[in-house]
Amino acid sequence: MNSELNDQPVDIVADDREHASEVIASLVGIPGVFVRSDRLASGDYLADRRILFERKTLLDLARSIVDGRLFKQMVRLVKSKYKAVLILEGTGKDAECLGMRREALQGALITISLILGIPVLRSMAPEETARLIVYPAIIS
User: Fold this and answer.
1) 3-139 adopts what CATH topology?
2) What is the DSSP string of 47-73?
3) Cα(101)–Cα(82) distance, rounded to whole angstroms?
4) How far apart are CA 133 and CA 129, in angstroms?
5) Which residues pair with 36 in a beta bridge?
6) Which residue has the higher pLDDT, 4 or 40?
7) Of 33, 54, 84, 106, which is most buried with the most CB atoms under 10 A?
8) Which residues, 6+ apart, have CB-to-CB distance to 78 below 8 Å?
9) Cβ neighbourhood burial of 38 (10 Å; 0-12, 13-18, 19+)
10) Are 45 and 82 in contact (CB under 8 A)?
């Protein structure tokens, strides 16, 4: 990370259910980023008390669609007092074994981004997810 961008400390609250996530280890390794664990009412990470991130792997996205969790989670994000963002983590290779039609995934992402107005950011790995959580807090 460019140290010029990180002159101000960034406070991240990680939901306590994310304790085993590699994202937390990556966040802790970024200079100027302070991470604490707490229970969040919605989302997985709260950056600088302004931006609420929900992180989903491609597999979790597919499971969330099937079990009906996805849109309930997204509506809770929209109703929160914070700016909501979905980070979708994984690669095309990860998507090959989902057992879900591409159109179903695209339909869900269209609903999330265009209908609910939640930006969707793509990440290839937990390290990149950590940077995507920190960058908006630095530049906004």
Assistant:
1) Rossmann fold (3.40.50)
2) ETTTEEEEEEEHHHHHHHHHHTHHHHH
3) 32
4) 6
5) 13
6) 40
7) 54
8) 84, 116, 117, 118
9) exposed
10) no
Cα-based distances in Å from 96 to 58, 78, 103: 10, 30, 13
Distance CA 39, CA 25 (A): 18
Length of the chain: 140
Model confidence pLDDT, tens digit, residues 69-121? 999 999 999 999 999 999 999 887 766 667 788 898 899 999 999 999 999 99
Domains in the chain: boundaries = 3-139
126 token code pair: 């937990």
